[in-house]
Amino acid sequence: MKKYEVMYIIRPEVEEEARKALIEEINASFTANASTVDKVDEWGIRDLAYEIAKCRKGYYVVLNVTATTEALNEFNRLANIKENVIRHIVVAE
Fold it and tell me: 82: which residues sit within 8 A by CB, 6+ positions away?
């Protein structure tokens, strides 16, 4: 398993409870696939450099994970199908 930094941006209009549920669901996608979430850093709502999906702001979440390939594939699948996730990226450390 390798270490990765994962960042995703959630739409700013999502209510707090729904946002927390979405973050938990995404974190669970790693732990369910024999991986660990080492650190969760919620940056909060910030301005975007450019408009994405008609949004000028976004709620940033950064994760440090030790993950398998299957866990990364599941994260990418979830991030692509969740309408409230407007951008995501995975970078190997």
Answer: 22
